[in-house]
């Protein structure tokens, strides 16, 4: 028999799984917005990010199943599909990543409070991955803000994303 988890932790885990699914839909909408404008690098990057969010949801589902829990899929709301400019899209992406980070950290706190070591071990790599995702979203937002909606600058960023060469600076080597 699988080790049960607290009702509160289970509720938060289910909510987070559905947040990941909602994020996947939102990323797909952003990818479509950029594809409609022939910004292939942005579109591909955001599509890939959406695929990762769907994979994260699957990881949570697998974990819940391994703990003997029933996975509850909530209705996914239609994501926003209307933005006025690139910065608005990427700002939404950053806010979404920040919200997911907050949710993961809340899960971790709840698991620690419950002394649920299985869940903290499961969440450890997720916390680090989410930290990196939020950092990358912040980096992209900073670049887009710096571009100041100038087409040439946005095309440079798009090319970097297409070549998978857009990454925050690192000093640790």
Overview of the structural elements:
The chain is mainly alpha-helical and about 170 residues long. It has a single domain (about 5-70, about 80-160), classed as Ferritin (Up-down Bundle). It contains five helices and no strands. The protein has helices at about 5-35, 40-65, 85-115, 115-145, 150-160. Helix 1 runs antiparallel to helix 3. The model has no long low-confidence stretch (mean pLDDT about 95).
Q: Please state the overall shape, judged from the principal axes of the Cα atoms.
A: elongated
- At the fourth level of CATH, the homologous superfamily is Ferritin, core subunit, four-helix bundle
Report the end-to-end length measured between terminal Cα atoms. 46 Å
* CATH class division: Mainly Alpha
Give unreliable regions as ranges: none
Largest sheet: none
**Spatial extent as radius of gyration:** 18 Å
Average pLDDT metric: 96
What fraction of residues sit in β-strands?
Answer: under 5%
**Number of discrete helical segments:** 5
Class by helix and strand content?
mainly alpha
CATH domain fold name: Ferritin
Beta strands, count: 0
Run of helices and strands: HHHHH
Helix content: over 70%
User: How many discrete structural domains?
Assistant: 1
């Amino acid at each position: 028999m699988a080790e049960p988890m607290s009702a509160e932790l289970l509720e938060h885990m289910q909510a987070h799984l559905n947040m990941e699914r909602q994020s996947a839909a939102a990323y797909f909408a952003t990818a479509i917005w950029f594809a409609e404008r022939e910004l292939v690098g942005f579109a591909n990057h955001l599509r890939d990010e959406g695929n990762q969010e769907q994979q994260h949801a699957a990881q949570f589902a697998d974990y819940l199943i391994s703990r003997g829990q029933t996975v509850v899929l909530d209705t996914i709301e239609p994501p926003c599909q209307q933005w006025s400019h690139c910065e608005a899209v990427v700002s939404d992406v950053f806010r979404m990543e920040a919200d997911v980070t907050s949710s993961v950290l809340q899960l971790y706190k709840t698991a620690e409070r419950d002394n649920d070591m299985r869940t903290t071990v499961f969440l450890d790599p997720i916390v680090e991955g989410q930290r990196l995702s939020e950092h990358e979203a912040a980096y992209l937002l900073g670049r887009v803000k710096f571009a100041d909606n100038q087409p040439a600058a946005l095309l440079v960023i798009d090319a970097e994303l297409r070549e998978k060469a857009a990454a925050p600076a690192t000093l640790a080597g």
